[in-house]
């Protein structure tokens, strides 16, 4: 059995889908209510691999909302993640992906130091961030979509917003070593971490976002932003490919311009239908087949019987691990979203 710990993108989103999740009494409630709501298993489904193998999974809604961070409800946010992990473990799940902000909260607030949740000792080997597969899929999306937009990666400048993050740093390593991009622009806020990454890569330039965006042929968005940014289209190159891997999305969902191709980053499409409800709720275009790459990682680990925290900690993702999870991804019938 594999598991997925997920959350919704905003209080507004949560209110609008509470009924679909089976909790109509949550629909009119404010942030306080969500802060005290316990985790729930809201979906139970089967997934068939392209090899014919079938596995079972459960989706755990943590009831975390990004507004909890913006409103300094840190204790509630951390409790949501720990309680959801304990709930997954108690329900006999072998390997669970910590989707979206779940792994970010786990890392930022050092939750590895809190192993005990009530009467249960968390076994961290049963969890994965899913970030290795996410980084791999984003890189494959860049490599496949750039030529379609008339962009030759070997001559291109790629800006990575959120470069020092777990996903961002892996993407930078791959774009340098495997995609052979001409120039890499490293964007984040903390200068020390940016300088360390620049030294590790021995490649690229550290630049503030407003200086990097006008220079970029491709922008990879993997910053942990609680809300989408408004990007000034007049300051962007055309054509420009934007691969937005953020959850919630890094760029405002209403952003639309003919010269700028925006691709939903870190999303995979399965070759067979999955009979579940949860991807309707997070607004996938083809909910029976499309899903977050981090969730697919827990499926891949279950298919491969690799019940271990494959992606764990920050900035530990190697090219070898990306190759390994990438091969499993192809074998079991997942492909990067390209439209
Ligand atoms: P990390 O916390 O490891 O990294 C976040 C990065 O964003 C850091 O480089 C951070 O650097 C940067 N950042 C944060 N705020 C800003 C800002 N205001 N301006 C510029 N940079 C900023 O996160 P992950 O790598 O784990 O996740 C990144 C994103 O990917 C998140 O939105 C997450 O929800 C999403 N995600 C998507 C998945 C999928 O399957 N599609 C799976 C997992 C995650 P600094 O603080 O120095 O600015």
Describe the structure.
With 339 residues, the chain is α/β, with parallel strands linked by helices. It has two domains: 2-131 and 269-331, no CATH class; 135-267, 3-Layer(aba) Sandwich (Rossmann fold). Helices cover 35% and strands 20% of the residues. It has twelve helices and 16 strands. The strands form four sheets. It has a six-stranded parallel beta sheet, covered by helices on one side. The chain has a five-stranded mixed beta sheet with strand order 2-3-1-4-7, with helices on both faces. A three-stranded antiparallel beta sheet has the order 15-14-16. β5 and β6 (120-121) form a beta hairpin. Bound molecules: NADPH dihydro-nicotinamide-adenine-dinucleotide phosphate. Residues 100-101, 103-104, 130-131, 134, 161-168, 187-190, 193, 222-225, 245-247, 266, 292-294, 314 line the site of NADPH dihydro-nicotinamide-adenine-dinucleotide phosphate (NDP).
Structural class per helix/strand content? alpha/beta
What's the β-strand tally?
A: 16
Count the domains. Answer: 2
Rg (CA only):
19 Å
In percent, how helical is the residue content? Answer: 25-40%
The proportion of strand residues reads: 15-25%
Question: Main sheet?
Answer: 6 strands, parallel
- List the bound ligands: NADPH dihydro-nicotinamide-adenine-dinucleotide phosphate
**SS element count, helices:** 12
End-to-end C-alpha gap: 31 Å
- Spans of at least 5 consecutive residues whose pLDDT stays below 50 are none
Trace the largest sheet across and list its strands: 10-9-8-11-12-13
**Could you spell the SSE succession in H and E letters?**
EHHEEHHEHEEEHEHEHEHEEEEHEHHE
- Average pLDDT number: 96
- The shape, in one word, is globular
Organism: Phormidesmis priestleyi
Domain Quinate/shikimate 5-dehydrogenase/glutamyl-tRNA reductase: 148-254
Function: Catalyzes the NADP-dependent reduction of long-chain acyl-ACP to the corresponding fatty aldehyde. Involved in the biosynthesis of alkanes, mainly heptadecane and pentadecane, by producing the fatty aldehydes used by aldehyde decarbonylase.
EC number: 1.2.1.80
